[in-house]
Amino acid sequence: MSIGDLYADCDLQEERRTIKVEGDYHIVARTEGSERNEGITPTEKYSKDAELLVEALKDEPDNHRYQFYLGQSYFDSQQWEKAYHAYADRVKSGGWEEEQWYSAYRMAICCSIMQKPWAETAQHYLQAYNMRPSRAEPLWQLSRIHRQERNEPRIAYLYAKTACEIQYPETDILFISAEIYQWQALDEFAAAAFYAHDFLRGYNACESLMKNEHVPENEKERIARNLETYRQKLMELQQQNQQMQEVLKKENEAHRQKLIKQRKSMEAKKQKKKRKNKK
Fold it and tell me: Which of 20, 52, 63, 96 has the fewest CB atoms within 10 Å around its CB?
């Protein structure tokens, strides 16, 4: 079996061009359709792919495609530790920046799956963002984990705030999580903003999500509840502000009356003193 059976590549390496095909397309990855896949599970299939790639790399140790797909094969066969190290080798080898970045991002995901110490895992996500700040996926993951798994919504808010400001990377082509840019990053911000007391922007985010055609219908009930919670909070704050204004108005009026009374008292004393001097 040849390595060409594992992934598609161009036979003509010289003068080949990489272009982006415009349109709403996606690739469905499946493991059926080949004799070598009959009678085995997808996990077993990717394990065999990894074994082939290990052998191929002995002959071509600097082949970036082999390095990358070795990480992918280990990941898809759920060999997380091996995937982590294969991706690390791909990051170090240079070459195509998007593939380097995705390998670094996958290293962070491997750490999450293996439940590595959080400081180590978080640093991997941050390094992935640092490598390619035009990609929001690592920040979205950080926000999601801080909010949903670590119960730290205020920290989640910081990452979500930056993630939802990143525009869809039009010039990138490799494994873009479109949903994150379409609505998921904004959804994380909307969920976390309440705890950071950013009530108005949280309300606006929920309102925007309710109008967003990309948001699945089964998510909108939850978002609608969040929107109502924000609405109630904003009304409460408005009432508190009105009450505070009333209190301040009364205090200012009381202070004004006190000054008037003091002024009248001083005038009365002056008049009394004048009359006394005339006598």
Answer: 20
CA distance 83 to 50: 10
As a whole number of angstroms, the distance between CA 264 and CA 201 comes to 51
Q: What is the dihedral of CA 62, 65, 68, 70, to 10 degrees?
A: -90
Residue 92 structure tokens: 């170090």
Whole-number Å distance between alpha carbons of 263 and 270? 11
Sequence-ordered list of residues with C-beta below 8 angstroms from that of 262, at least 6 positions apart, any chain:
none
Instruction: Give dist(CA 41, CA 130) in Å, integer.
Output: 37
pLDDT in tens, 88-111: 999 999 999 999 999 999 999 999
Neighbours of 185 (CB within 10 A): 27
**CA distances for 13 relative to 9, 108, 173, angstroms:** 9, 32, 19
Residue 10 — very low, low, confident or very high, per pLDDT cuts 50/70/90? low
Tokens representing 84 are 């982590």
DSSP secondary structure letter of residue 150: S
pTM of the model: 0.79
Q: Could you tell me the pLDDT band of residue 273, with boundaries at 50, 70 and 90?
A: confident
Residue 74: burial class (beta carbons within 10 Å; 0-12, 13-18, 19+): buried
Give the amino acid at 114: M
Q: Are 7 and 71 in contact (CB under 8 A)?
A: no
Dihedral sign (CA 231, 232, 235, 240): negative
* DSSP output for 77-88: TT-HHHHHHHHH
